[in-house]
């Protein structure tokens, strides 16, 4: 009994630590559907794993009706999991949610296979943040401390500490095994909605690299044409002098960088 009460207290405490809107334990207990869904999932999961499949599904169905959160009774939910807001969250039968994970509203941990008994749904490691509207689809793993950006569609594994953004999701690698958004000298911190400083779409980074490379090449080509023009003028071969346009730079790198955003 004491272990059950201790776990209930820890469920409440993890919400107080991660949600600045939570003002008291009483408010958390009475007004947080994510907490209610977790508490109802535990008896549903017990029934499911002890052969009472219909009973487990019925408890899950009642929980969905009360909270707007659908957790299949076969799913495995770890300790200190926080489902924030929660409306529209769907967690599939073979999904595994590790300790300390945070899941926001509209998230789907779904499967892409129709084979019964197979691992169809994702496995979230410890302290993973899945932001609002994200879809994680398939029986792969999302590593410890990873972040899934809002509305991302993840269809492949995410390394530990990395951030996945976009449709389909692209991976921002971690730095020295930490969160992709935290410098080495800083202590890792919780990032609400999986958003933090220095987070940037890798496709945008690649575009900026191509723009910088093109600007450098045009500058070098212009210098070469100027050198050829000077050499041709020195040799009095006016018919070999290139046009004025070849010696000038027209590549608008700044305008392109403005288009793709900061």
UniProtKB/TrEMBL annotation:
Cellular component, GO annotation: cytoplasm
EC code: 2.3.1.30
Classification via Gene3D superfamilies: Hexapeptide repeat proteins, serine acetyltransferase, domain 1
One GO process term, biological-process aspect: cysteine biosynthetic process from serine
Keywords in alphabetical order: Acyltransferase, Amino-acid biosynthesis, Cysteine biosynthesis, Cytoplasm, Repeat, Transferase
MF GO annotations: serine O-acetyltransferase activity
Catalytic activity: L-serine + acetyl-CoA = O-acetyl-L-serine + CoA
Superkingdom per UniProt: Bacteria
Pathway as given in its UniProt record: Amino-acid biosynthesis; L-cysteine biosynthesis; L-cysteine from L-serine: step 1/2
Subcellular location field: Cytoplasm
Alphabetical list of InterPro entries matching this protein: Hexapep (IPR001451), LbH_SAT (IPR045304), Ser_AcTrfase_N_sf (IPR042122), Ser_O-AcTrfase (IPR005881), Serine_acetyltransferase (IPR053376), Trimer_LpxA-like_sf (IPR011004)
A family per Pfam: Hexapep
Similarity comment: Belongs to the transferase hexapeptide repeat family.
Entry-linked NCBIfam families: cysE (TIGR01172), EPS_EpsC (NF041874)
Protein name: Serine acetyltransferase
Record organism: Oryzisolibacter propanilivorax
């Amino acid at each position: 009994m004491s272990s059950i009460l201790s776990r209930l207290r820890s469920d409440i405490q993890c919400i107080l630590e991660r949600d600045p809107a939570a003002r008291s334990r009483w408010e958390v207990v009475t007004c947080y559907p994510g907490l209610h869904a977790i508490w109802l999932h535990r008896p549903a999961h017990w029934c499911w794993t002890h052969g009472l499949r219909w009973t487990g599904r019925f408890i899950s169905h009642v929980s969905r009706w009360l909270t707007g959160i659908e957790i299949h009774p076969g799913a495995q939910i770890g300790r200190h999991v926080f489902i924030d807001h929660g409306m529209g969250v769907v967690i599939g039968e073979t999904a595994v949610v590790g300790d300390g994970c945070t899941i926001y509203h509209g998230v789907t941990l779904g499967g892409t296979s129709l084979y019964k008994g197979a691992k169809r749904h994702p496995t979230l490691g410890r302290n993973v943040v899945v932001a609002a509207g994200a879809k994680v689809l398939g029986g792969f793993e999302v590593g410890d401390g990873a972040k899934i950006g809002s509305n991302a569609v993840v269809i492949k594994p995410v390394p530990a500490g990395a951030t996945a953004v976009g449709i389909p999701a692209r991976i921002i690698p971690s730095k020295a095994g930490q969160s992709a958004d935290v410098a080495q000298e800083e202590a890792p911190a919780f990032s609400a909605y999986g958003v933090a400083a220095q987070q940037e779409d890798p496709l945008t980074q690649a575009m900026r690299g191509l723009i910088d490379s093109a600007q450098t090449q045009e500058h070098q080509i212009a210098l070469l044409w100027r050198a050829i023009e000077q050499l041709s003028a020195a040799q009095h071969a006016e018919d070999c002098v290139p046009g004025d346009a070849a010696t000038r730079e027209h590549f608008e790198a700044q305008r392109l960088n403005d288009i793709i955003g900061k």
